[in-house]
Specification:
Blueprint: H1 11-17, H2 19-29, E1 33-36, E2 42-43, E3 59-63, E4 85-89, H3 96-103, H4 106-111, E5 114-118, H5 125-130, E6 139-143, H6 151-161, E7 166-170
Helix pairs in contact: 1-2
Amino acid sequence: WVLCVSCRVDHERIRAVGPDRAASEWLLRCGALVRYQGSPKWQQDYNGLPTGPLGKYKIEAINATESCIMYRGFDYLDGLEHVTDIKLEKCMYIQDECLQRLSETNNLQKSLQQLKIISCGNVTDKGILALHKLTNLEYLYLSDLPGIREKETTFRVLQQALPNLELELDLE
């Protein structure tokens, strides 16, 4: 088991190839999948990343199931303007700080509509409460999160902060 090859963010690379391409490379290296605007299929092969004019491919969705994405790489998400859907499932390195970072990312506050957090054992109420900054979030699915202890309070606070949010829970 090897820790993510390049967890440090390469800002030179972001400048050279654009935020979507750089983020795609980071996500795929960590084992996540990306889907681009206008494409039905998920990109999973790093070597098969589409080439073309800078900024042609915009990440619309991220599926980080069983990936090793971690806080240190989240700077890659800053420049993404079109991400509407993120799924974090069985991500052992995702913890509250990651969710706080996600919800403080200006572009994601505007674009993110759907978020699923499933079987991420290091997520607690604090991380879920931090999501209140994602003001355009329409759907939040939470499942198998043993770190959530104050369910009722946490969800009530979140619902008050985001009245249009559809919250789906599958928590014991």
